[in-house]
Amino acid sequence: KVEKEWVISTKNPLAVFQISKILLYFKELVRNSNPTYPMKQRNLFVAVLLAGLGTASLTFAQQNPTPPPMPPQATEFYTPVPPKVTPGAMNNQAPSDAIVLFDGSSLSGFVSAKDGSSPAPWKIEHGELVVQRGTGDIQSKLAFGDAQYHVEWSAPPEIVGEGQGRGNSGFFLMGIYEVQILDSYESKTYTNGQAGSVYKQYPPLVNPLRGPGDWNYYDIIFKAPRFDKNGMLTSPATVTVLINGVLVQNNVILKGPTEYIGIPNYKAHADALPIKLQDHGNPVRFRNIWVRPL
Fold it and tell me: Is the pTM value of this prediction over 0.85?
Protein backbone atom coordinates (compact mmCIF):
# COMPACT_ATOMS: atom_id res chain seq x y z
CA LYS A 1 0.00 0.00 0.00
CA VAL A 2 2.80 2.40 0.87
CA GLU A 3 4.62 1.71 -2.37
CA LYS A 4 1.46 2.17 -4.44
CA GLU A 5 0.56 5.44 -2.74
CA TRP A 6 4.08 6.80 -3.25
CA VAL A 7 4.01 5.99 -6.98
CA ILE A 8 0.68 7.75 -7.37
CA SER A 9 2.01 10.79 -5.51
CA THR A 10 5.12 11.19 -7.60
CA LYS A 11 3.25 10.86 -10.88
CA ASN A 12 0.46 13.21 -9.90
CA PRO A 13 1.56 16.66 -8.62
CA LEU A 14 -1.89 17.16 -7.07
CA ALA A 15 -1.27 14.18 -4.78
CA VAL A 16 2.32 14.77 -3.63
CA PHE A 17 1.25 16.50 -0.42
CA GLN A 18 -1.06 13.75 0.68
CA ILE A 19 1.56 12.69 3.21
CA SER A 20 -0.77 11.99 6.11
CA LYS A 21 -2.04 8.79 4.58
CA ILE A 22 1.49 7.58 3.87
CA LEU A 23 2.51 8.56 7.39
CA LEU A 24 -0.24 6.44 8.90
CA TYR A 25 0.97 3.47 6.86
CA PHE A 26 4.53 3.86 8.07
CA LYS A 27 3.46 4.50 11.66
CA GLU A 28 1.40 1.31 11.64
CA LEU A 29 4.25 -0.55 10.00
CA VAL A 30 6.73 0.53 12.67
CA ARG A 31 4.34 -0.29 15.52
CA ASN A 32 3.50 -3.76 14.24
CA SER A 33 6.99 -4.75 13.22
CA ASN A 34 8.57 -4.10 16.65
CA PRO A 35 6.08 -3.70 19.54
CA THR A 36 8.88 -3.33 22.10
CA TYR A 37 10.46 -0.47 20.25
CA PRO A 38 10.48 2.66 22.53
CA MET A 39 7.66 5.10 21.79
CA LYS A 40 9.98 8.11 21.75
CA GLN A 41 12.25 6.57 19.14
CA ARG A 42 9.27 5.47 17.07
CA ASN A 43 7.91 9.03 17.05
CA LEU A 44 11.34 10.35 16.11
CA PHE A 45 11.44 7.92 13.18
CA VAL A 46 8.05 9.10 11.98
CA ALA A 47 9.08 12.76 12.25
CA VAL A 48 12.22 12.16 10.21
CA LEU A 49 10.17 10.29 7.63
CA LEU A 50 7.68 13.14 7.44
CA ALA A 51 10.42 15.70 6.91
CA GLY A 52 11.99 13.61 4.19
CA LEU A 53 8.73 13.11 2.35
CA GLY A 54 7.87 16.80 2.57
CA THR A 55 11.27 17.77 1.15
CA ALA A 56 10.91 15.25 -1.66
CA SER A 57 7.43 16.53 -2.48
CA LEU A 58 8.56 20.16 -2.60
CA THR A 59 11.54 19.25 -4.77
CA PHE A 60 9.30 17.30 -7.14
CA ALA A 61 6.86 20.20 -7.41
CA GLN A 62 9.67 22.67 -8.13
CA GLN A 63 11.17 20.44 -10.81
CA ASN A 64 7.80 19.80 -12.46
CA PRO A 65 5.90 23.10 -12.38
CA THR A 66 2.37 23.24 -13.81
CA PRO A 67 2.63 24.73 -17.31
CA PRO A 68 0.87 28.03 -17.85
CA PRO A 69 -2.45 27.87 -19.74
CA MET A 70 -2.08 28.02 -23.54
CA PRO A 71 -3.23 31.35 -24.98
CA PRO A 72 -5.63 31.18 -27.95
CA GLN A 73 -3.01 32.91 -30.13
CA ALA A 74 -0.77 29.85 -29.87
CA THR A 75 -3.01 27.96 -32.33
CA GLU A 76 -3.64 30.84 -34.75
CA PHE A 77 -1.73 31.62 -37.94
CA TYR A 78 -2.09 34.34 -40.56
CA THR A 79 -0.19 32.99 -43.57
CA PRO A 80 -0.63 31.84 -46.22
CA VAL A 81 -3.60 34.04 -47.07
CA PRO A 82 -6.21 32.32 -49.31
CA PRO A 83 -6.49 34.07 -52.69
CA LYS A 84 -9.65 36.00 -53.39
CA VAL A 85 -12.13 34.31 -55.75
CA THR A 86 -15.27 36.02 -56.97
CA PRO A 87 -18.18 33.57 -57.19
CA GLY A 88 -20.62 33.57 -60.07
CA ALA A 89 -23.83 35.56 -59.76
CA MET A 90 -25.58 32.19 -59.36
CA ASN A 91 -24.04 29.14 -57.72
CA ASN A 92 -23.96 27.22 -61.01
CA GLN A 93 -22.07 29.97 -62.80
CA ALA A 94 -18.31 29.94 -63.15
CA PRO A 95 -16.25 31.68 -60.46
CA SER A 96 -13.47 34.07 -61.42
CA ASP A 97 -10.71 31.44 -61.32
CA ALA A 98 -12.55 28.84 -63.45
CA ILE A 99 -11.71 27.81 -67.01
CA VAL A 100 -14.90 27.87 -69.06
CA LEU A 101 -14.96 25.00 -71.54
CA PHE A 102 -18.40 25.70 -72.97
CA ASP A 103 -20.55 28.80 -72.49
CA GLY A 104 -22.98 28.28 -75.38
CA SER A 105 -21.14 30.41 -77.90
CA SER A 106 -18.60 28.06 -79.49
CA LEU A 107 -16.91 24.66 -79.41
CA SER A 108 -13.43 26.19 -79.31
CA GLY A 109 -12.65 24.37 -76.06
CA PHE A 110 -13.17 20.91 -77.59
CA VAL A 111 -11.81 18.70 -80.36
CA SER A 112 -12.73 15.31 -81.73
CA ALA A 113 -11.54 12.49 -79.47
CA LYS A 114 -10.83 10.34 -82.52
CA ASP A 115 -7.54 12.09 -83.25
CA GLY A 116 -7.34 14.79 -80.57
CA SER A 117 -7.02 17.60 -83.09
CA SER A 118 -9.96 17.72 -85.54
CA PRO A 119 -12.79 20.15 -84.80
CA ALA A 120 -15.46 18.80 -82.46
CA PRO A 121 -18.27 17.44 -84.70
CA TRP A 122 -21.21 18.11 -82.35
CA LYS A 123 -23.67 20.94 -82.90
CA ILE A 124 -24.71 24.01 -80.93
CA GLU A 125 -28.45 24.66 -80.84
CA HIS A 126 -29.90 27.58 -78.87
CA GLY A 127 -26.66 27.87 -76.90
CA GLU A 128 -26.69 24.17 -76.02
CA LEU A 129 -24.16 21.53 -77.07
CA VAL A 130 -25.96 18.55 -78.65
CA VAL A 131 -24.49 15.07 -79.18
CA GLN A 132 -24.51 14.09 -82.88
CA ARG A 133 -25.07 10.38 -83.17
CA GLY A 134 -22.25 8.46 -84.80
CA THR A 135 -19.78 11.35 -84.87
CA GLY A 136 -17.82 10.07 -81.88
CA ASP A 137 -16.72 11.43 -78.53
CA ILE A 138 -15.28 14.90 -78.04
CA GLN A 139 -12.55 15.93 -75.61
CA SER A 140 -11.24 19.16 -74.13
CA LYS A 141 -8.21 20.81 -75.69
CA LEU A 142 -6.77 21.39 -72.23
CA ALA A 143 -5.59 18.64 -69.91
CA PHE A 144 -6.48 18.47 -66.23
CA GLY A 145 -5.49 16.49 -63.15
CA ASP A 146 -6.95 17.35 -59.75
CA ALA A 147 -9.95 19.55 -60.45
CA GLN A 148 -13.44 20.75 -59.62
CA TYR A 149 -15.90 20.37 -62.49
CA HIS A 150 -19.35 21.72 -63.22
CA VAL A 151 -21.45 20.38 -66.10
CA GLU A 152 -25.15 20.66 -66.89
CA TRP A 153 -26.98 18.18 -69.09
CA SER A 154 -30.47 17.29 -70.22
CA ALA A 155 -31.86 13.99 -71.52
CA PRO A 156 -34.05 14.13 -74.64
CA PRO A 157 -37.68 14.95 -73.79
CA GLU A 158 -38.83 12.34 -76.29
CA ILE A 159 -38.64 8.97 -74.55
CA VAL A 160 -36.80 6.49 -76.75
CA GLY A 161 -35.36 3.21 -75.55
CA GLU A 162 -34.92 1.84 -72.07
CA GLY A 163 -32.08 1.24 -69.63
CA GLN A 164 -28.66 2.05 -71.11
CA GLY A 165 -30.26 2.99 -74.42
CA ARG A 166 -32.14 5.96 -73.02
CA GLY A 167 -30.55 9.40 -72.77
CA ASN A 168 -27.05 7.95 -72.42
CA SER A 169 -23.76 9.84 -72.43
CA GLY A 170 -20.81 10.08 -70.07
CA PHE A 171 -18.43 12.54 -68.45
CA PHE A 172 -14.94 11.00 -68.51
CA LEU A 173 -12.45 12.43 -66.04
CA MET A 174 -8.98 12.40 -67.59
CA GLY A 175 -10.73 10.71 -70.52
CA ILE A 176 -10.81 7.31 -68.76
CA TYR A 177 -12.76 7.56 -65.47
CA GLU A 178 -16.49 7.81 -66.22
CA VAL A 179 -19.22 9.50 -64.24
CA GLN A 180 -22.35 8.17 -65.92
CA ILE A 181 -24.88 10.42 -67.66
CA LEU A 182 -28.17 8.63 -68.29
CA ASP A 183 -31.91 9.17 -68.22
CA SER A 184 -32.50 6.96 -65.18
CA TYR A 185 -35.17 9.24 -63.75
CA GLU A 186 -37.64 6.34 -63.94
CA SER A 187 -36.03 3.96 -66.42
CA LYS A 188 -34.52 0.84 -64.85
CA THR A 189 -30.95 -0.33 -65.34
CA TYR A 190 -28.13 -1.85 -63.29
CA THR A 191 -27.51 0.46 -60.35
CA ASN A 192 -23.78 0.91 -60.93
CA GLY A 193 -24.66 2.11 -64.43
CA GLN A 194 -27.34 4.69 -63.66
CA ALA A 195 -26.87 8.46 -63.64
CA GLY A 196 -24.32 9.61 -61.08
CA SER A 197 -22.63 6.24 -60.83
CA VAL A 198 -18.91 5.77 -61.20
CA TYR A 199 -19.64 3.46 -64.10
CA LYS A 200 -19.45 -0.24 -63.22
CA GLN A 201 -17.82 0.63 -59.87
CA TYR A 202 -20.10 2.60 -57.52
CA PRO A 203 -23.86 3.24 -57.72
CA PRO A 204 -25.05 6.67 -56.58
CA LEU A 205 -26.08 7.00 -52.94
CA VAL A 206 -29.49 8.34 -54.01
CA ASN A 207 -31.30 9.24 -57.23
CA PRO A 208 -31.95 13.03 -57.26
CA LEU A 209 -32.35 13.19 -61.04
CA ARG A 210 -34.75 15.52 -62.81
CA GLY A 211 -36.92 14.18 -65.61
CA PRO A 212 -36.28 14.15 -69.36
CA GLY A 213 -36.07 17.64 -70.85
CA ASP A 214 -35.09 19.20 -67.50
CA TRP A 215 -31.55 20.22 -66.63
CA ASN A 216 -29.39 18.27 -64.22
CA TYR A 217 -26.34 19.81 -62.56
CA TYR A 218 -23.21 17.78 -61.86
CA ASP A 219 -20.56 19.12 -59.50
CA ILE A 220 -17.51 16.88 -59.34
CA ILE A 221 -14.39 17.00 -57.17
CA PHE A 222 -11.67 14.77 -58.60
CA LYS A 223 -8.26 13.81 -57.26
CA ALA A 224 -6.10 12.17 -59.91
CA PRO A 225 -4.11 9.02 -59.18
CA ARG A 226 -0.39 9.16 -58.49
CA PHE A 227 2.29 6.87 -59.92
CA ASP A 228 5.95 6.58 -59.03
CA LYS A 229 8.81 6.80 -61.54
CA ASN A 230 8.48 3.07 -62.22
CA GLY A 231 4.80 3.38 -63.10
CA MET A 232 3.56 1.82 -59.87
CA LEU A 233 0.37 3.23 -58.33
CA THR A 234 1.12 5.14 -55.12
CA SER A 235 -2.28 6.79 -54.59
CA PRO A 236 -5.58 5.87 -56.33
CA ALA A 237 -7.97 8.42 -57.77
CA THR A 238 -10.91 9.63 -55.70
CA VAL A 239 -14.11 11.39 -56.72
CA THR A 240 -16.98 13.21 -55.05
CA VAL A 241 -20.13 13.90 -57.07
CA LEU A 242 -23.22 16.01 -56.40
CA ILE A 243 -26.30 15.93 -58.62
CA ASN A 244 -28.56 18.96 -58.31
CA GLY A 245 -26.85 19.80 -55.02
CA VAL A 246 -27.34 16.30 -53.58
CA LEU A 247 -24.31 14.16 -52.68
CA VAL A 248 -24.26 10.90 -54.65
CA GLN A 249 -20.56 9.89 -54.48
CA ASN A 250 -18.72 10.61 -51.24
CA ASN A 251 -14.97 10.69 -51.92
CA VAL A 252 -14.98 7.14 -53.30
CA ILE A 253 -11.73 5.44 -54.24
CA LEU A 254 -11.65 4.50 -57.91
CA LYS A 255 -10.61 0.94 -58.66
CA GLY A 256 -9.07 1.94 -61.97
CA PRO A 257 -10.16 3.29 -65.36
CA THR A 258 -13.70 2.55 -66.53
CA GLU A 259 -14.18 -0.88 -68.08
CA TYR A 260 -17.35 -2.05 -69.78
CA ILE A 261 -16.23 -5.67 -69.51
CA GLY A 262 -13.80 -6.97 -66.94
CA ILE A 263 -12.09 -5.72 -63.80
CA PRO A 264 -10.55 -2.23 -63.78
CA ASN A 265 -6.79 -2.02 -63.28
CA TYR A 266 -4.60 1.05 -63.10
CA LYS A 267 -1.97 1.73 -65.73
CA ALA A 268 0.43 4.62 -65.38
CA HIS A 269 -0.55 7.75 -67.28
CA ALA A 270 0.19 11.45 -67.41
CA ASP A 271 -0.54 13.74 -64.45
CA ALA A 272 -3.04 15.67 -66.58
CA LEU A 273 -5.30 14.50 -69.41
CA PRO A 274 -8.30 15.97 -71.29
CA ILE A 275 -11.86 15.31 -70.17
CA LYS A 276 -14.16 13.52 -72.60
CA LEU A 277 -17.89 13.71 -73.41
CA GLN A 278 -19.39 10.52 -74.83
CA ASP A 279 -21.40 9.95 -77.98
CA HIS A 280 -23.60 6.99 -77.00
CA GLY A 281 -26.09 7.54 -79.80
CA ASN A 282 -28.58 9.72 -77.89
CA PRO A 283 -29.05 13.49 -78.45
CA VAL A 284 -28.13 14.51 -74.91
CA ARG A 285 -27.65 18.25 -74.45
CA PHE A 286 -24.94 20.06 -72.48
CA ARG A 287 -24.42 23.59 -71.28
CA ASN A 288 -22.33 25.62 -68.81
CA ILE A 289 -19.23 23.43 -68.55
CA TRP A 290 -16.37 24.82 -66.45
CA VAL A 291 -13.43 23.55 -64.43
CA ARG A 292 -11.24 24.79 -61.59
CA PRO A 293 -7.82 23.10 -61.53
CA LEU A 294 -6.89 22.28 -57.93
Answer: no
